Amino acid sequence: MSTHQPPGNAYETTGPTGIEQPIDWHHYLRLLRQRWRLIGVVCLLAWVGAFIHYLITPESYRATTTLQIEQRSSMAATTDPNPWLEAWIGMKYYPTQYRLLESRGLAERVVLDLGLMDDPRFNSTPRQLLKSGESEGEVSEAADEAVLAQLASRVLGGLSVEPVKETELVEVSFVSSNAEMASRVANGIADAFIDWGIETRSATVGRASDFLVKQIDTLKAEINEKEQQLQSYGRSTDILNLDPESDTTLQQLDRLNAEHIAALGDRLEKEARYNELKRSPADALTSPDADGLVAELERELMRLEADYETRLRTYKPEWPEMVDLKARIDESRADLARLVEERGRKAQGTAYAEYQTALRRERSIQAEIERVKAKVMDRNASAVEFRNLEMEIQNRRQLLDEMLRRLSEAGVRARLQSERETNVRVIDRALTPGTPFRPSLGRNMIVSLALGFGLGVGVVLLLNLMDRTVRGPAELQQRLGLPVLAAVPDLDYKGAAARYGYYASRARPTDVAQPSEPTQIELLPQVSPKSAVSEAYRSLRTALMLSSADELRVIAVTSPESSDGKTATAVNLAVVMAQLGRRTLLVDADLRRPRLNRVFDRDNSTGLVHALAGGEDPASLYLTTGIENLSLCPSGPHPPNPSELLASARMADFLGRAARDFEVVIVDTPPALVVTDAVVIGSLCDGMILCLHANKTLHEDAEGCAERLRLAGVRLLGAVLNRFRPATSDSYSRRYYSYEAYSDDRESARGSAA
């Protein structure tokens, strides 16, 4: 029997197990809402930690100096002729300046300028550290350097440099436990940075000026030497001017090149004409319009051929006159062919003569060009050295002009440096802070709230990830591919939890119709029919009645393990079926741990075992329960071989007889993962219901149980989720609370009417 999933079931919202489902963000929001207390506890702990951190953190003061650092090209004091190059340099300029502000060299300068080595507010250790063997009063230079480096590191530890985006401004801040020291060091860093820049540029300008003066003197001496060499070489080679416009030899070479190009073109044209005539047939070389004799012979031939065609209509070709006329035509055609061939040979000869003339002219011009080139090369051999000397002199003069310009600019920068001109300005000097920068209670609280909330959410998600139990109907449908027929809520009644099972002190079945308060979940639809639990079982009844086109007569109830609520489901399903007016039989097929006799407080000395082992008439085993239309067949005494009895043909006969005697038969079976009895019974029934314990049944147990039943051919009608605790934002919870409110409103209306 294959697994059956009824079409059109209102509970079925997901596909079979294994189909990828989209992320349900509402599920995670509901999860956070359910665990809001845990998130609140984590946030509270974070707040407590932040407050403790505030109490134990010493006070720190921060003072800030704002500087404007203007970009200045190191190449010139005037306007840069290459703005794109200035922009490219700026990409590295400002990061370099920020790094210099945080350098150890500047920090050591601040320590020395402000005398921080001798200031007890900043340096609590003695300045003078003596080495072993040194006399008292002798200061170790190495120790001073070590102290200076240590104090510079302390300055850097409290220093922060923050550029203001899209501006030339930078904020230099210093944090100290002393408010006055914070402002003093912040202003000292700004002053030291400005002085350091001025001194560095002054030293650079001085070195550049000295270098330029030496280079200018060297260039002047080299120019004089090269000019003398040029004059001497010009006199020895008779070269006074290398201007191409005044050189007749070059002008002659240009003219010959032009003539050679023209001759080359003429020769190529004549050669192409000759090759064309040489490959053409003789008749294509003769034009009748240009040669009158050829035209006359062609006209005579055409006349004779026309006369021959005319006479041929009258005379036969063998007629003497026709033979004479044919001979004259052949003779005329031969004369025309000889004339055409003669004229063709004449045209080819003329074209060849013209081609040879053009070729001789081209070769003559080429020879003259080679002669003039040789003359030019002889002249150039002497002019190359002359031109090289001129170029060297010209290059050195240009370099000299550039050096003189740089020297002038260096002089301008030197005058500016003497006036302490700088590209760094102090916009706002640091003031002595009146309140501490750290600790800040407000900031600690805000940060701790954010961290606590994030940590709380992480803990909730981690717990959810580690939880391998079935938690809700949607998750159950997704994993098992089964419709959830009902989700039975876990409720509290007047402080006492209604649990699955029974209490030792309980009322008899005849007395449970109207007790003062419910003591067990079994029989709750009979005891408290208006409760949400009772409505859940009525929903289960409706789902089963609509789940199949075929009438379900025999329904088995099982679960993966014990305490999953299968017995309570079987009992209450039987109760709601009986309340519908259907004659219902409840069969206790759990031959190992029977419980239905204790639920209804009936004798278990005889039961199903007698029908299976001794062949006793089933009708004699039916017991009344005190509930109208509901009968009970207990399990009977414990047999030694329950699986064999349940798998026997008598079990099938018993169920068949019960289906004839009653309209509905509900069979309570053992757990399917513990023993094989449920699989055996399920194969004999019209369908089986799988009960699961919310927040207890593991995913792998539920999936394994469903797979085991499917492989055995058991028809699974759906699942029932017991002890379900819905969240306030859950759809099941909304239906549950809506039902409770609706029931309360109806009761209030009835009381008012009374």
Q: Outline, from the CA principal axes?
A: flat
Provide the β-strand percentage band: 5-15%
Uncertain ranges? 1-19, 73-81, 128-139, 493-518, 744-754
Second-tier CATH architecture of the largest domain: 3-Layer(aba) Sandwich
CATH H-tier superfamily of the largest domain: P-loop containing nucleotide triphosphate hydrolases
Q: Return the domain count.
A: 4
- The CATH topology of the largest domain comes to Rossmann fold
Number of strands: 14
Description:
The chain has four domains: 35-43 and 46-57 and 439-466; 60-201 and 423-428, Alpha-Beta Plaits; 244-418, Orthogonal Bundle (Helix Hairpins), CATH 1.10.287; 473-500 and 507-749, P-loop containing nucleotide triphosphate hydrolases (Rossmann fold, 3-Layer(aba) Sandwich), CATH 3.40.50. The chain is built from 21 helices and 14 strands. The chain is flat, with a radius of gyration of 58 Å. The protein is α/β, with parallel strands linked by helices. Helix 7 packs antiparallel against helix 9. A hairpin with a 2-residue loop joins strand 6 (492-493) and strand 7 (496-497). An eight-stranded mixed β-sheet has the order 5-14-13-8-12-9-11-10, with helices on both faces. Strands 2-3-1-4 form a four-stranded antiparallel β-sheet. It has a two-stranded antiparallel sheet with strand order 6-7. 57% of the residues lie in helices and 10% in strands.
